[in-house]
Specification:
It contains 5 helices and 8 strands; from the N terminus they run H-H-E-E-E-E-H-E-E-E-E-H-H. By secondary structure, it is of the alpha+beta class.
């Protein structure tokens, strides 16, 4: 399967033509990782994202606060919060800002990833603003989905910690924001 065909199946590139996908495929680099290899570390700076062609990746966060540095995160115990499979991607926040990484990503087994650097996609987007618009719209939708999902998970953990179960009317809606006894 060509890189262009692989990218076409990813929702992140929905709405782009074959020619536009070809331009994005031309800036993707294949990277191979062994079991346990760190793709990137929590609190490190990064300017690339990765698409999983083959293999699985573990997304991990440090469990102890020893400071905010890649070195501190590397020596901290880590908790796996997600397992990513082929046709998923990681590092999309690096396409939007220059902040530090929010997690460590490790190859669970042998993995083949496609790497895309921010400078390369910015150049492609400058040459074809329509690519930039569609790509950034899709990245924003993905980040919004992940943020909403994280909020739901956090809400569930709070309910669990407070009462070992969710309230009787626990439909994840935002209508639960006020205290009914107040």
């Amino acid at each position: 399967m060509s890189t262009q065909d692989f990218l076409q199946d990813l929702g992140l590139f929905e709405g782009l033509s074959r020619e536009q996908l070809g331009r994005i495929a031309s800036v993707c680099l294949e990277r191979r990782y062994k079991p346990g290899d760190v793709i990137f570390a929590e609190y490190s700076r990064g300017d690339e994202m990765y698409f999983i062609h083959d293999g699985t990746l573990l997304v991990q966060i440090s469990t102890h606060s020893h400071g905010v540095s890649p070195e501190a995160a590397a020596t901290s115990e880590r908790r796996t919060i997600a397992r990513l499979m082929p046709a998923q991607y990681v590092g999309e926040q690096a396409m939007v800002d220059d902040a530090v990484r929010s997690a460590t990503v490790v190859s669970e087994g042998d993995s083949v990833l496609l790497q895309m650097r921010r400078a390369d996609i910015e150049r492609v987007c400058d040459e074809d603003p329509r690519i930039g618009y569609i790509f950034m719209r899709n990245v924003a939708q993905e980040l919004s989905f992940k943020l909403r999902n994280t909020g739901l998970v956090m809400r569930g953990e709070l309910w669990s910690a407070e009462s070992n179960e969710a309230p009787a009317d626990s439909g994840f809606g935002f209508d639960q924001l006020t205290d009914p006894e107040a």
